[in-house]
Specification:
Layout: H1 6-24, H2 41-49, H3 56-63, E1 68-69, E2 74-77, E3 80-81, E4 86-94, E5 105-112, H4 117-123, E6 128-131, E7 141-148, E8 151-158, E9 165-171
Length: 176
């Protein structure tokens, strides 16, 4: 008759766990899949801009990105992928309490491949520098602004990586 030892008793739960992990897939938490879009970053700007005045539903309709309400004026989204290896790290839609406000905007933080100022200028040739770093932090940005009939687009380049665009803000401020 086989002798049961403390070592063999400890091996049973480990063997059972190993079997279940193989049979059912690993039990480690996996990140949910990141939504993908065939939109380029400049198509996203134009499609979202064309939906002004903005709502979470209109941003979703233009981009396929789902936004979740944080409060009565703020909606956010997690990561998603755009065309050409450009990623959205985070998105935020903020709407003025009146539904149309100069403070309404849709902002996205970018990741993935580097989008250079030269590339920006091929799609938005009218960009002008409207704000620059003050020298207090490498997280400060140079902001380039492009004005369209529907509002304003701000394109940010951080001081610590000045050759790559890091964020885009689409503002619903009408031209005066």
């Amino acid at each position: 008759m086989a002798r049961v030892t403390a070592m063999s008793l400890r091996a049973i739960p480990i063997a059972t766990l190993a079997f279940l992990m193989v049979a059912c897939g690993t039990s480690s938490a996996k990140e949910p899949p990141v939504p993908e879009s065939a939109l380029s970053w400049w198509d996203l700007v134009n499609k979202v801009g064309s939906k002004i005045p903005l709502t979470a539903e209109k941003v979703h309709e233009a981009t396929g990105i789902v936004l979740s309400a944080e409060d009565s004026i703020t909606w956010t989204s997690g990561p998603s992928k755009l065309a050409d290896d450009v990623n959205i790290i985070r998105g935020e839609l903020r709407i003025g309490s009146d539904g149309w406000s100069k403070y309404s905007y849709y902002a996205i933080d970018l990741g993935g491949r580097c989008i250079s100022l030269d590339e920006v200028k091929t799609h938005f040739p009218d960009v002008d520098v409207t704000a620059g770093p003050t020298g207090h932090s490498r997280d400060e940005k140079t902001i380039y602004t492009s004005v369209q009939s529907w509002g304003i687009t701000h394109l940010g380049f951080r001081e610590k990586n000045p050759n790559c665009m890091t964020d885009i803000t689409i503002r619903s401020e009408p031209i005066r």
